[in-house]
Every structure is written in C-alpha cells, then in structure tokens.
Design goal:
DUF4142 domain-containing protein; signal; globular; Ferritin; disordered N terminus; mainly alpha; two-stranded antiparallel ribbon; Ferritin-like; 198 residues; DUF4142
C-alpha cells in the first residue's frame, strides 16, 4: 500500500511541474530570452545572490569614466597653474579650471551614484604623464606648455561631450548637454591665452 501511495505522489508531482511550466519544455528558453532583452532585470551573480543590473553599460560607462579622468586632470593641472604659472591670465585660468571642473566632478559623482556606477579615482597613465611633466615646470615655460595642453585637452573633451549629447541614457545625455557649453568656454579661453603667449 505504501508503495502505491508513493507512486501516486510522484506522478502527481511530475504533473504539477509540467502544469507550472505550461507543459512546454521550450518555455525556459523564452523566459531567458525575455530576461536577456530587459537591461534592468534582476539576475543571479556567481555567488547565487540576486543583483540589480543597471542600464548604464558600454558607451555610457566609458563616457563617464573618460569625463571623470579628464576632470581630475584639469583640477590637478589648474592647481599647478596657480602655483607655477607666470602670466596672471594663466593663473586665473587655472583657478577657473579648479572651480568649474570640481563642480562638474560633483555633478558627475551624483549621477554615477544614482546609476550605481563606480567612477575611477585616479587618472590613467597618459594623463599622469602630463601632470608629472608640468609639476616640474615653472614660469613662462610652464605657461606655454600648460595652455598648449589645455587647448588639446579641452578640444578632446568638447568632442567627447558632443558624443555624450547623443547618448541613449537620458541622464547621461542631460549631463553632457549641461557641461558642454562650460567646456567650450574653457577651450575658447585657452585658445585666446595661447595666442597672447606667442
């Protein structure tokens, strides 16, 4: 009698499992397809914990990282400009870099926190080499090299922000659009100072 009861229970369990799956073995694939197509779905990481995936990936993350590194570089070099520069225009430009890029960095940091994105906390090797070079320079030589870097660097950031205004993430796009005019002003100022130093 116990054996018959066990067989009945097993059969009922199999029937229940098939009913839950809609009786189709292909439903599992369609569920996975649905999850894969949703960029904000919950998923299991390797430890079995449920994690919330953010919608910031690929070009958005790269954009934010590049802006963060450029900003850190401008702030550091702006401090050097105030200390090592000779021209009052260069010193004033450096002060503007520290103020404006600190403000932009704070706004980017808030955006990154909202998107659960970890921004870099140090500059990359290329930007570090620029900082190291200018740290050792002073006076007129510093002014010329610094402003030359500012023209090139701000042109690169203007190009980056222009691309950012086409980003598919609305918040990233809004940040780029807000920051672009400020950086364009920096570029125009750097070009004007460069002309006066020749």
């Amino acid at each position: 009698m116990k054996k018959i009861t066990l067989i009945v229970l097993l059969a009922a369990s199999v029937g229940l499992m098939q009913a839950c799956n809609g009786g189709k073995s292909g439903d599992k694939g369609s569920l996975e397809d649905t999850a894969a197509s949703d960029p904000t779905h919950d998923s299991l990481d390797n430890s079995g914990q449920v994690t919330q995936e953010t919608d910031v990936e690929g070009d958005s993350k790269t954009f934010m990282d590049k802006v963060a590194v450029a900003g850190m570089t401008e702030i550091e070099l702006g401090k050097y400009a105030q200390e090592n520069g000779k021209s009052s225009r260069v010193k004033n430009f450096g002060a503007m870099m520290v103020a404006d890029h600190t403000k932009a960095a704070n706004e980017l940091g808030a955006l990154a926190k909202n998107k659960e994105v970890q921004l870099p906390t140090t500059v990359d090797a290329e930007h570090k080499s620029h900082i190291d070079m200018l740290e050792k320079m002073k006076g007129a030589d510093f002014d010329k090299q610094y402003i030359e870097m500012m023209v090139k660097g701000h042109q690169d950031v203007v190009d980056l922000l222009n691309k950012g205004t086409q980003n598919r993430d609305a918040d990233v796009k809004a940040f780029a659009a807000k920051t672009l005019p400020v950086v364009q002003t920096h570029l125009d100022s750097a070009k004007a100072i460069s002309g006066s130093l020749k």
